Amino acid sequence: MALTVVPSFSVSGVWKRTQFPVSTESQKPRQKKAPEFPILEKQNWLIHLHYIRKDYEACKAVIKEQLQETQGLCEYAIYVQALIFRLEGNIQESLELFQTCAVLSPQSADNLKQVARSLFLLGKHKAAIEVYNEAAKLNQKDWEISHNLGVCYIYLKQFNKAQDQLHNALNLNRHDLTYIMLGKIHLLEGDLDKAIEVYKKAVEFSPENTELLTTLGLLYLQLGIYQKAFEHLGNALTYDPTNYKAILAAGSMMQTHGDFDVALTKYRVVACAVLESPPLWNNIGMCFFGKKKYVAAISCLKRANYLAPFDWKILYNLGLVHLTMQQYASAFHFLSAAINFQPKMGELYMLLAVALTNLEDTENAKRAYAEAVHLDKCNPLVNLNYAVLLYNPGEKKNALAQYQEMEKKVSLLKDNSSLEFDSEMVEMAQKLGAALQVGEALVWTKPVKDPKSKHQTTSTSKPASFQQPLGSNQALGQAMSSAAAYRTLPSGAGGTSQFTKPPSLPLEPEPAVESSPTETSE
Asked: Which of 109, 280, 327, 471 has its Cα between 20 and 30 A from that of 442?
């Protein structure tokens, strides 16, 4: 230790020097500053902040800077860049970036899930399944992987494997979306009872989910269980008074029972939320039709047809309205278009035959009736109208055969249900039976005065002297039946499905601020 000399005075006035020890630390050489290594994750917080604020341009600028500093090794920056590409619709670019993330972190199941999701969005379902299976090896308890595998199998029409994966997802973790997809599988298979059971379990698990309540109500409505349908639709409206699907379904039920003004009031509420809805304008049009405001009905149906030009039900109703207004050429146009989209519906061929009869094309009308008889095994009016057409030119033998076939269908309907037939149909059948000298033993149910909600179709074939042309009430009743069937069902419910959406994977949320980004289901 060095000494420091400090001058001092003695008593005699002579200078003396006093020595004090001095620390040697100040004399040591200074150490060099430690080198600064680049931190790969130092900008992750800023990237996350811009992303959740949806400020994607600023986010991409920070990502670009971060990747330049880290020489492209920042996994989180690449991950978020891929998410932004996907949001912008650049699915292929996002796939390549997620694959890069998977290379940087091969043990991350989340990166593989994102790769599989991009493949799914590109329509490569088999490749997506392979990647999801690889992700499942890294994380066997992830419900989302099982759920997404089930969705992929749905697109490949492998419903048994899809059900297995979805049940596995429910065993791992119960979610509303998984129940919805499982119910859709049963609807695709045409098993309404199993679909209802699945949705009932889903409602027990999530009683406030308006989508589940609405779907369950619509399924009950399709089966004709109106009390339970109204109950579930009412519960859906209790939790969400603006749920347009539930309001539309409730309006359809009121419309079925002839409460056109109340139904229109409901539809006004729906129009405020979803103005451009084809089912909405279809049902509004049929309400006007029920009120005999035919021009307004055609205007609304034309709007529905503009919004959904390939919907056969709208074309069907347009054909009915034009038949009622005796505009047979226009009716032929719309009914022909409906047949192109729904070629297996016998009733469409019958209505087409009615239009052809009034256009004086008897031969093609016979062909249309023959096809209707071949396709429709339950509706006695098809045979009755065909018999009338055959009787007019004197083909009594063929007319008798059709009349007898009608009698068989009527007997079956009486045995299997308490259906009451339209009074005009009964009168026409009795007159035709008298002309053919048959039908005395045919016992009809009590005729009804109001045919609006009963079983009926229309016949406007040119009558003989004993016949009277059927009025517009027949077409009205059939039109209302169609409007009531125009419901919102999940995808896969056959021709009656509306507001359908294809199965979708859980959406990715905002990425977490960490070096190994994760994905959770919204």
From this structure: 471
Q: Alpha-carbon distance 138 to 142, whole Å?
A: 9
CA distances from 433 to 176, 396, 429 (A): 57, 11, 6
- Check if the beta carbon of residue 205 is closer than 8 Å to that of residue 179: yes
Q: Where are the alpha helices (DSSP H) in 291-422?
A: 294-307, 312-324, 328-341, 346-358, 362-375, 380-391, 396-416
Residue 343: partners with Cβ closer than 8 Å, 6 or more residues away: none
For residue 397, CA distances in Å to 367, 404, 411 come to 17, 11, 21
Residues in the chain: 522
Phi, psi of 169 (to 5 degrees): -65, -40
Q: Are 63 and 77 in contact (CB under 8 A)?
A: yes
Chain centroid to Cα 404, Å, comes to 43
The span from the CA of 471 to the CA of 98, in Å, is: 66
Per the structure block, which two tokens stand in for 93?
A: 């670019």
Q: How far is CA 321 from the centre of its chain?
A: 28
SS3 content of the chain, % helix, strand, coil (to 5): 65, 5, 35
User: DSSP assignment, residue 421?
Assistant: B
DSSP state of 36: -
Q: Which of 286-295, 305-314, 446-455 shows the lowest per-residue confidence on average (mean pLDDT)?
A: 446-455
Q: Is 56 exposed, middle or buried (0-12, 13-18, 19+ CB in 10 A)?
A: middle
CB distance 283 to 483 below 8 Å: yes
8 A C-beta contact, residue 392 and residue 464 = yes
CA angle 386, 375, 348 (to 5 degrees): 70
What element of type H or E holds 155? helix 143-155
The 10s digit of each residue's pLDDT in 359-379 is 988 899 989 988 988 888 888
Q: DSSP for 175-203?
A: -HHHHHHHHHHHHHTT-HHHHHHHHHHHH
**CA-CA distance, 318 to 295, in Å (whole number)?**
11
- 215-256 pLDDT tens trace: 999 999 888 888 899 899 989 988 988 888 888 888 888 888
CA distances from 346 to 84, 416, 417, 422, 448 (A): 51, 21, 21, 20, 25
- Cα gap 282→314, rounded to integer Å: 6
What is the chain's Cα-based Rg? Answer: 37
Q: Exposed, middle or buried: residue 512 (CB in 10 Å: 0-12, 13-18, 19+)?
A: middle
Do 435 and 466 meet the contact criterion of CB atoms below 8 Å apart?
yes
Virtual CA dihedral for 354, 360, 364, 368, nearest 10 degrees? 10
User: Cα(first)–Cα(last) distance of the chain, in Å?
Assistant: 70
